[in-house]
Amino acid sequence: MLETLKKNSFKKSIPLSLILIACGLVLAVWNFSSAYYALTGYVRFEDLKPEELSNQLVEANVNIVWDCYLEEGTKNTSTNRTTINYYWYIIATGDEYAMEYSYLGIKVPKKLGDQMDEIMNYYYDNNLPYPDSLRITGKVKKLSGKNFDYFHDFFTDDDFLTEEEFQDYTIPYYIDVNLNLDKTKYFYIVLFLAGAALVVWGIIRIIRGAQGSFLQRFIADYQGAGLTDSAVESDINSAVSFTKRDTIKIGRLCTYYDLYGAIPRAIPNSKILWAYQNTTTHRTNGIKTGVTYSVMIYVDGRKDAFNIGVPDETTAQNMLTRINDTLPWVVVGYSDDLKKTFSKDRAQFLELRYNTVEHVAVEPGLEGFNS
Q1: Contact 103, 165 (CB under 8 A)
Q2: Cβ-contact 73, 84 below 8 angstroms
């Protein structure tokens, strides 16, 4: 039986482990380059050749702006007014002395719009770079979707560039300017490390599952009550099941739940003090959306209750009936007085049954709940 539980535990643990690894890889790979540049420093944009652009964190000194091709904002549907949040301009790779260059986009917050316009107008009026360049920091990103379409249309509408010239003189990238990048760049490091941690955690879970480590808590549950492997195995085989897949069972020695899951648990019956049904009604915006049921089991030596989720109220009642009929030292059922006594005067609560009834399971025969 323990070998079967070990195999099931390993099998059930694999999906979550794989999800952790997959999410970790995505997070780590996506943020690797940014984390690298956050540690080693920004790449100087002017030193990059067109073919060297990727997802770098860059520092650029903008002194030539060719044009503004897009305003990005949000529209208030009630007032029908649009608030501009970003401006998209055209700049070029390299500096003013570069022999080889390509045009690309740069997305700047609204507050930089006036400075960018001043740089642009100065160039067109004087055919010279702006004498006081604007330092910006940001991340190089790929142009895609509608952003690429706007970029493409700016150059190809009105036959400004042919399609062949567009391919030769532009690259589908832009700099996403971040005014707070100097302060927040280490966030990329945190994201990368979080992704790496998820990958490691997933791998560790797989290794632990293969070694049967998820059964350690289950074994400790019953060994702490002085029960042997063979006794528990026999008890599981003869226990009464309350779910279709035998995930919840009540035997003479233990109450078992998540029995064939990743982390099964065993509650020694001799330690159980109190059991009752817990019903939770879920509401969204005041509207009832569902009801969930569970059986709360309090045990000696543990502050919090075991909360065993069950599919419906019938299952909860059947479990409580079984506990009531076979474990006479357990108080079954809920009342405010019982709750008050349990919380305020534990010694008195124990005298109700736990300390006065022999802890030996009996055969069913008694009807109703004790109180």
Answers
A1: no
A2: yes
- Residues ≥6 apart with Cβ < 8 Å to 212: 6, 9, 10
Token couple for 245? 């897949």
pLDDT per position as a tens digit, 283-312: 888 888 889 999 999 999 888 899 999 999
Could you tell me where the DSSP H helices lie in the chain?
2-40, 113-126, 145-156, 163-169, 181-184, 186-210, 216-223, 229-238, 313-326, 336-344, 346-352
* Distance separating alpha carbons of residues 20 and 16, to the nearest angstrom: 6
Residue 278, burial from CB neighbour count under 10 angstroms (0-12, 13-18, 19+): middle
In this structure, what token pair is assigned to residue 258?
A: 């998540």
The reply to whether the predicted model has a pTM over 0.85 is no
Phi-psi region at 249: left, alpha or beta (left = phi > 0; alpha = psi -120 to 50): beta
Residue linked to tokens 């391919």? 167
The token pair at 114 is 């006036």
